[in-house]
Inverse folding.
């Protein structure tokens, strides 16, 4: 056997591939996937409280930006948002007042924006009522007989 043929045989007998076929899109891709399933239907009011000079407020502000995107806002047009700026070094928090009267508070000092999106989907988006699809009845035009065209 020649040296080239031996070289080809050695490289074709390699270990089979194991692992992910492609890399993940990163944090921004994960956040966009979570935002696709966010719905504000069970929420009446969202209230953000934070000190802008607090060292852990950046992720809360990112979450506020994501949750107030026009695509998310279209899921519930009656939901109101309130931002309370405090200058007393308190930890940031987000309060969700639900339609059924409950109140859910996220203490967001040690959470990332992705974790807040996941928690929102886990605890709040599941409370949204299921959408029912109603089939349209058959109209008169669809039930007419088709007459064949006569050839001359």
């Amino acid at each position: 056997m020649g040296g080239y043929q031996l070289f080809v045989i050695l490289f074709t007998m390699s270990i089979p591939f194991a692992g992910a076929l492609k890399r993940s899109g990163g944090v921004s891709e994960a956040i966009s996937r979570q935002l696709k399933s966010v719905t504000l239907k069970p929420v009446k009011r969202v209230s953000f409280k934070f000190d802008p000079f607090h060292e852990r407020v950046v992720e809360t502000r990112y979450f506020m930006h994501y949750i107030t995107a026009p695509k998310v806002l279209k899921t519930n047009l009656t939901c109101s948002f309130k931002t309370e700026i405090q200058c007393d070094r308190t930890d940031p928090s987000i309060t969700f007042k639900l339609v059924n009267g409950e109140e859910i508070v996220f203490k967001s000092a040690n959470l990332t924006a992705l974790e807040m999106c996941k928690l929102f989907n886990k605890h709040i988006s599941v409370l949204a009522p299921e959408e029912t699809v109603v089939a349209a009845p058959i109209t008169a035009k669809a039930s007419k007989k088709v007459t064949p065209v006569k050839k001359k």
